[in-house]
Fold this sequence. Notes:
Elements: H1 13-23, E1 27-29, E2 36-38, H2 40-59, E3 63-64, E4 70-72, H3 73-76, H4 80-86, E5 92-96, E6 99-107, H5 112-122, E7 131-140, E8 154-164, H6 167-187, E9 194-197, E10 209-216, E11 222-230, H7 234-239, E12 242-244, E13 250-252, E14 254-261, H8 263-272, E15 289-293, H9 298-317, E16 322-324, H10 332-341, E17 346-350, H11 352-357, E18 359-364, E19 373-377, H12 381-406, E20 408-409, H13 414-423, E21 425-430, H14 434-444, E22 447-452, E23 460-461, E24 468-469, E25 471-476
Parallel strand pairs: 3-7, 15-16, 15-17, 20-21
Antiparallel strand pairs: 1-2, 4-6, 5-6, 7-8, 8-14, 9-10, 9-22, 10-11, 11-14, 12-13, 17-18, 18-19, 21-25, 22-25, 23-24
This protein binds zinc ion.
Zinc ion binds near residues 431, 464, 465 and 467.
Amino acid sequence: MADLKLPTRAEDYAEWYNQLVLRAQLADYAPVRGCMIVRPYGWALWENITAALDQRFKATGHENAAFPLLIPKSFIEKEKSHVEGFSPELAVVTHGGGEKLEEPLVIRPTSETIIGHAYAKWIQSYRDLPVLINQWNSVVRWELRTKLFLRTLEFFWQEGHTAHATAEEAEAETRQMVDVYTDFAWNEAAVPVVPGRKSAAEKFAGADITYSLEAMMGDGKALQFCTSHNLGQNFAEAFEIRYLDKNGQLQFCWTTSWGLSTRVVGAIIMVHGDDQGLILPPRLAPIQLVIVPIFRTDEEKTSVMESAVRLKKELIAAGIRVKMDEREGLSPGFRFNDWEMRGVPLRIELGPKDVAKGSVVLARRDRPGKEGKAFVPQAGLPEAVQAAMVDIQKALYDKALAFRKANTFEPANYEELKRAVEKGWALAWWCGDGGCEARIKEETKATMRCIPLEQPGGEGVCVACGKASKEKAIFARAY
Ligand SMILES: [Zn+2]
C-alpha cells in the first residue's frame, strides 16, 4: 500500500496541493502538457457544482443552449480589445479533412463573438429582449504555466451571455449574477468570497466593467472564484446586435457575460483542506458519508454487514449520498485515513460492539481525532446525519471566514502593504490610478484583486502615492 502521508501545507503548499489532487483521485495529468483528465470523483464534485448553479441560473430566467467549439478567426478580430487580450492564448485550426482551410478556425477561448453573431440574427425588436442564455462547455486557452484545476489549457465552465435594451438592465443583470455566484460560494461551497469590481488593468478583454468574487486560499493568496462582465455596447457594435425600439429607432443592444470554471474545485481544495487531505463541504461532496464495517470473524461479518446494509438503505432513502467501504484485507485505520484524505464529511464506524449496542460511531472529517467522534443510536440515524451535515457546512464557512479576517490587513502605508502581502491580503486605500497599481504589482508581486462592493465609507490616502482616495481595494498575490 502506498504511503498515505501528504507533505504538510507548511512544508510545501504547492506540492501538498498537487499530490492531494492526484491521490484523492480528482484529476490526472494528460498526454498533452497543460491538459487535465478529470477523474470520476473530481467530475462528481463538478457535477454537484453545476447542479447547484444551474438551478440558480434557471430560477433567474436563464436557459441553456450549445454554441459551436470552432469559431472563424475573423470573428475574434472584430472586437479590438478582445483580440488583443486573447490572441496570445488562441489555439488555431489550420487544416481540416486533410486540406488547408481557407479561413483558419479558432477553438473557442470564450464565446462572446460567436454568440454575438447569433444574437445579431435573432434579435430584431425590443420584443425579443432580453435574451438570457447560458452554456456549459469547455474552452481552450494556451496557457504556459499550468496547474491541475487552477489553470489548465482546456477547462470546463459555464458561460452566460445576455442581451438587453438598456444600459441599466445590463448592469442589473451583471450585478444579479454577482449575487447568484456569491450565494453559491457562501452557501454551497462554504467559501466566504468577497465580491468586488476589477480595475481597468484587470478587467475582461472587451468589458466596460468586470466584477469578480475573490477567495482567500489556505496559504493567504487570492483566487478569482468567478467573474461577471458588463460588456456595454462593445460586442453589440462589433457584431451589429441591434433592435428596433418602441419608437421604431434602431438601437444597439447592451450585453453581459459571466462565468465560473473548474478552478472552483481548486478553490474548494485550498480553502478547506488540511494536512490530512481534502475536506469537502457536505452540500457539494460526491460522498457525504462513508460506512466502514469492521469485523474479524465470519460470524462478526454476518451481523455487522446486516446492520451496515440496513443503515445504508435508510440513509440513501433520506437523500444522503452514501458509500460502503467493503474493501477487505485493509486495516480500519488505513481505511479511515483514506476517506479522510478524500474529504468525505462523515464516517460511520460499525463493529460488533456497536451492533450489539444498537449504535454507531459517527466521525466528522472537519474535527480530526476523538473530538470529532460520537456514539449515535442507530434509530433515527438519518436525522442525526442530516443535522451533522448542516453543522459541518456552517463550521467550514465560519472557519474559512475567520481565517480570511485574520489574514486580511489594513496597511496604513506602503511598507505595511509590502509586509501584508507576504502573509495575506492587504485592504488598502487606492486612488484609482493605474500607475500606483502597476508599481505595487512590480514591487510586491501583489495584484489588485478587486474593489470590494462593501466599502468602509469616508476617505483616506492612497497606500502607494498618498493622494486622496475614496475606495479601498484588495491587493494580494494570486493564483
Ligand atoms: Zn495612488
